[in-house]
Amino acid sequence: MTRGLRPCSVRAARPGHRQSGFTMVELMVSLVLVAVVVGLMMQIAVVMLAGFKEQREALELSRNARAGIELLTEAVRNASAGVSSGEVLDSTSCNPVVGITVTNHDDQPDSIEFIYGSGGIVTSVRNTVDAGTTTLTVVNASGIVPGDQVIVSNGTTGRLLPVLNVGAAGVTTDLTTQTNLCASAPMPATGFDPGALVIRARYARLAVETGPDGVPMLTVDPDGDGPAPSEILAEGVEDIQIAVGVDLDGDSALLDLGDTTDEWFHNAPGDPPPPPITDGQWRALRVTVTARDVLGRGGSARPAAEDRPAGAADKHRRRTLRTQIEIRNLGRAL
Ligand SMILES: [Ca+2]
Ligand SMILES: [Ca+2]
Ligand SMILES: [Ca+2]
What we know:
Elements: H1 8-13, H2 24-77, E1 88-90, E2 100-103, E3 111-124, E4 135-138, E5 149-153, E6 158-162, E7 165-166, E8 173-176, E9 197-210, E10 216-221, E11 231-235, E12 237-246, E13 264-265, E14 282-292, E15 300-301, E16 313-314, E17 318-326
Parallel strand pairs: 1-6
Antiparallel strand pairs: 2-3, 3-9, 4-8, 5-6, 5-9, 7-8, 9-10, 10-11, 12-13, 12-14, 14-17, 15-16
């Protein structure tokens, strides 16, 4: 049983060899040193983990804020596709939106609705489209499926119509639709002539809602006042503020004084509403999105943005992103 263990007494007995091994004091000093080193390493690990966690939370905050900005940018760039006047009406879910509609507040988040081209799918119609039409005979229906919506446009006015069914593909394809769903958005009196553009499109309303657990979130509603529920786009988004840049004097610049006399609307308390989008002077939207952490591990206040003053300090960390989106499809860009 003792093989491999050489008794100290044997070594100690050899002449010329000093006694090796640890004294009790040496052993205790080493133990203390080991304990100190292990303690330090654990402290470093804890600090590093906390750092990683903080970094992850900061990333998540940025991601949440960015999700809103990205969808908005995409939608605004494709808003009012194929209708340079901006007069696109919702003849599917009957929301009172005209191209892009901003609902402004200075004491709560703003919301925005738009009708925007989706997927770059464009064709044209062979028949006249008026209040009695139930079929859109289109040249090419590839990429369009039942449940989609399309803008029918003559370039100056458009209507968002539902695609209820898609017929067999041939030289032309018949899309079943309904043109009389919305008294608020009837077909133009003379209808759309053959050759009118047909663009796959969507309606969306972006808003901030509060979940059952009190967590604010950015939601997108695919039919506004219609029956479809809104979907969560990003958790923790507590504010969107949207200013509308309108080139009133036509000098291709947007005067920004942060007051009620400049060419930005909703950027100062007491701003009048902007002129209608159909006046052809809307050039850009400026969007500020603020996300906050869900659990409350920091300490900050919601910053002031456009016409909404800052909030009170609380236990949350925040990230605010701001971007200016040029409106492409309406008249000329800056
Ligand atoms: Ca506002
Ligand atoms: Ca100007
Ligand atoms: Ca203003």
